[in-house]
Amino acid sequence: MSSRTARPRHIALAVALALSAPSVFAQSTTGGIFGQAPTAAGQTVVVTSDTGLSREVPVDERGRYSATQLPLGTYTVSLRTNGQTVDTRQNIVLKVGAGTEVSFVSSAKDAQDLSGMTVSASALAKIDVSSIDSRTVVTSEQLAKLPLGRSSEAIALLAPGVVNNGGNFKGATGHSLVSFGGSAASENAYYVNGFATTDPLQGFGGLSLPYGAIEQQEVYTGGYSAQYGRSDGGVINVVGKRGTNEWHFGAQVLWEPAFARANQRNRYYESGLPASPRAGNLYSPDSENSSDSTTVSAYAGGPLIKDKLFVFVAAEYQRQEGNTVNPVTGYTSTKPYEDYRYNSPRWYGKVDWNITDNHIIEVTGASDKYQTSGTVYDYDYTSRTRLARIGADDDTKNGGDLWTAKYTGYITDDLTISAQYGKLHTTAYDSPGGYDPSLTYVDGIVNQNPALNGGSPRGNTQTVSSLIPAGKGNRTTNTRIDITYKIGDHTITAGIDNQTATALDQGSVTSGPGYSWTYGQGDPNTPISTGLGVPATGGFPNGAGGYYVIQNINSSLATVRSTQRAQYIEDKWQVNDRWLLSFGIRNDQFENFNADGDAFITQHKPQWAPRLGASWDVNGDATFKVYANAGRYYLGLPLNPALNAAGGALTTSQYFTYGGIAADGTPTNLTAISVPVAANNTFGQLPDPKTVTTKGLKSEYQDEFILGFTKTLGSDWVYGAKATQRILRNAIDDYCDIDLVLAKAQSLGYDVTTSSNPVSCWLFNPGKANTFNLVDTSGNYVSVPLSNKEFGFQGLKRRYYGLETFLEHPFANGWYGKVSYTFSRSYGNTEGQLRSDLFRESRGTGQTAVSTTQDWDNSYIMVNTNGVQNNDHKHQFKFFGYYQFTPEWLVSANLSLISGAPKPCLGYFGEDRTDPAGYGNSYHFCYGEPSAPGSHGRLPWIRQLDLGATYRPAFAEDRLAFNLNVFNVTNEQKVLAIFPNSESSPNLSNPLYGTPTSLQQPRYVRLSVNYDY
Questions:
Q1: How many CA atoms lie within 13 A of 300 on its CB side?
Q2: What burial class does residue 167 get, using C-beta atoms within 10 Å of its C-beta: 0-12 exposed, 13-18 middle, 19+ buried?
Q3: 10 Å Cβ neighbour count for 132?
Q4: pLDDT, mean of residues 42-63
Q5: Which of 641, 204, 154 is nearest to 398 (CA)?
Q6: Paired residues of 899 in beta bridges
């Protein structure tokens, strides 16, 4: 600070003016520079980037200047008086979405402007008092030093309140999805260079960039402006690198060797044994798995025409090879042992053209793909021995390509315009290896009657349960226009944000003859499903032991699309030297179309999403900021419901007893004990789009409230705290109790039947009254209202509150560190768009039917649902940092301590273990007792320590580096999630209940070498 004591109000005035200028950054791909300069005639400030881009802005009558919406990079900032440079600041690095303060009032020659007091350059850690949102920005420098997984989601986990999802949900390129503030893993938005890459079908992640091409990653955890929407979770915004006036290139090789990877621990049946165990109580011999991964990457960037045209290109290729021994039963039971190869190619290219200093064009291309292949072998689970080759594994290709073009025009000092257009094309190709159409897929073979198979489960070599079209994928186009205009103390931004998405050739059909078999066992005297009308086996031939088999038929193929449009306007008002207010409002419109191209959701009426915020520079010197934010966030419906609730899916099951088992595992001597049944009337008829949704269907939206502060501590530390509350006000899900709706219609005098209304489920707003649109037998539309009491529901509830605290040491004196602690609670009667706890062996994840989960399907499934939700982690402690203890050596660490999620327990309904809605063992009862979420305790704490070391030999002039990273140093292998179903059939314990569905990844090592020039 000053070597002499100045009058506080004068210093406060100068520094507050320098730090409180508002900044607006369209789509958060840019940054800004602002500050204070001496007030004199002819004063201007020139900012010049490392690409030669130059902007000259005036200094106003109060000595303030601001240059916004600058491309990220390194800048030189010069103060000019009557065209002559009088002072300069160099090596100013911008941070995405933030304002960087650069002032010229600290030199001795300017002391007269502060009443003769000397103010030297402050060594205090900076606080951006111009921001009101909640976000974490990770720079390329930090990415190169910290031990991190090489994905956008792994980077996002550094932010407070962000946790891994509990349902084993993964994005198209194989990365585990994350949950923000208790929200479902499908409720986030993903961006690359301002272009929305979110998966339009399910919201499962988005594309990213080669790790070395990431300039910065911005992780919004709340409070974001009206420019962003379509998320009530969080936002992950990746900004790629760009070329400069100097050529740079480099390469890197990374290796994760199999010999340095610890063994995963085996999983065992936790609740008894199945009818025909294959290896005693062993469920999955995970210790037999192995993996070896190699990644090579390279980049180059520089000027094609100095100061005018620049290029940056990067490519990355990861190959992972190994083997997986799958569980003895489940969705991989016909693939006991897999030798696999995973290839993950990524590339990125960007061209920047400074047409003039006032007009810029950027063109971006990127690709992020994930390809798999391999070989399937038989396996002896008792001797742990690989046996004969069964055939080729599936060849899959996921991910896709994007390109965008963006124009930025600095029309005047006060007017800036940007426009962006882009396209995204993703594929979900799956060519089944070794597919034999003459064989029938057989599942659940451990549940076969041992008297009919000689005590050894019988199956066949059919590894393919369903077939998908070769053209399966998604197409997305995105158009944005943003205009920013400064009027005095107001910075006004307005724009449009339009997106069109199409899901192509989605769905699947059952393989083989068009049906598959699933074996089961239950109590021979208890009905298998009262809701579906499936009786007990005891009264049928060969049913005395409770053994039965199900014939499954599935067929659902369609192409569907949606449009999502939005308009917004926002005003950042610098009220005075210390107060910044932000007022914004966004209006979203959503429309969804079925397989015939008919709209079944039209939400064109205004859906106003206000965003209000304030920042108070308490001391006037940017050492103490108090901020607040309140906002509403709308979430458009993904394309997934157009394939089921609004689609014509055929999904039926027919139950049989059997008197024999053929050599290929198929049942013989069958006796039907039911007709083909479907829990939700999914008999293959496309419903009338006018009857798919209830009248006046409202979009999902959430309100959020934030109050926080950030403060410096001494000259090298920053600390703060933030309180957040999120309230889900409205949701969309499907309602499937057809009998209840038809009964209400008949009570009103309408003649309606399932034939005149061939819906499987209706899309509605759960937890409130809804009016259904039905068709009577004469073809007339009739309105059928149901109150929440008639539904038998509680009101919709998902609430999150959290208190975050942090302490950060910005990089100084050779080290950087940040520690955060979050205390939070997510509770209510719904997780949101997903159900993480409904894990099924048949799919290997939680329920992926986004916005059409089992929640709210009927009154029975919602009994005992109020409690802490699946993404609730009460305590979260995170630390990451690095220390440069010599010019050649750097060490780093990343530590997280996360309390466990609630332990689920589901089962049949009530004390009598009935199945009133045909949902089997998925009700909130545990062995006949009420089982609210969180009532069975918690899964264990998840503790992980990752360490890194980097050596840069002096002889290589800082161009060569050797790196060693060790992940999960202590080899913790805690349970992340468990099978939730306590009973496999009424009154019959489920051997899988409590068995882990996923564990922490064991310790592994990454070695790398890189060269940068």
A1: 2
A2: buried
A3: 25
A4: 88
A5: 204
A6: none
CA dihedral 922, 924, 929, 930 (to 10 degrees): -170
Tokens of 556: 């659902």
Residues 6+ apart with CB under 8 A from 281: 268, 269, 273
Rounded to 5 degrees, what are φ and ψ at 385? Answer: -125, 135
33 within 8 A of 94, measured Cβ to Cβ = yes
- Single out the residue of 948, 965, 956 nearest to residue 255, CA to CA: 965
Q: Is 542:658 a contact under the CB 8 Å cutoff? A: yes
Quote the CA–CA distance of 519 and 515 in Å, as a whole number. 14
Query: Please, are residues 222 and 232 in contact by the beta-carbon 8 Å criterion?
Result: no
Question: Which tens digits make up the pLDDT trace of 73-96?
Answer: 899 999 998 888 889 888 888 888
Token code pair at residue 592: 């969804």
The pLDDT of residue 125: 59
Q: What percent of the chain has pLDDT over 70?
A: 95
pLDDT of residue 109: 41
Are 249 and 299 spatial neighbours (Cβ–Cβ below 8 Å)?
Answer: yes
- Spatial contact of 766 and 793, defined as CB atoms under 8 Å apart: yes
Per-residue pLDDT, 462: 87
Question: What does DSSP assign to residue 747?
Answer: H
Distances (CA, A) of 894 to 139, 142, 155, 877, 880: 16, 12, 11, 11, 4
Structure tokens at 471: 């053209």
Tokens for 434, please give them. 């070794």
Of 57-66, 623-632, 909-918, least confident by mean pLDDT is 57-66
Phi, psi torsion values for 743, nearest 5 degrees: -65, -40
Closest of 649, 470, 650, 646 to residue 560, by C-alpha: 646
The residue with tokens 């290709």 is 397
Does residue 123 or residue 644 have the better pLDDT?
644
Q: pLDDT of 946-984, one tens digit each?
A: 999 999 999 999 899 999 999 999 999 999 999 999 999
Q: What span, in angstroms and rounded, lies between the C-alpha atoms of 11 and 15?
A: 6
The model's confidence at residue 323, banded by pLDDT at 50, 70 and 90, is: very high
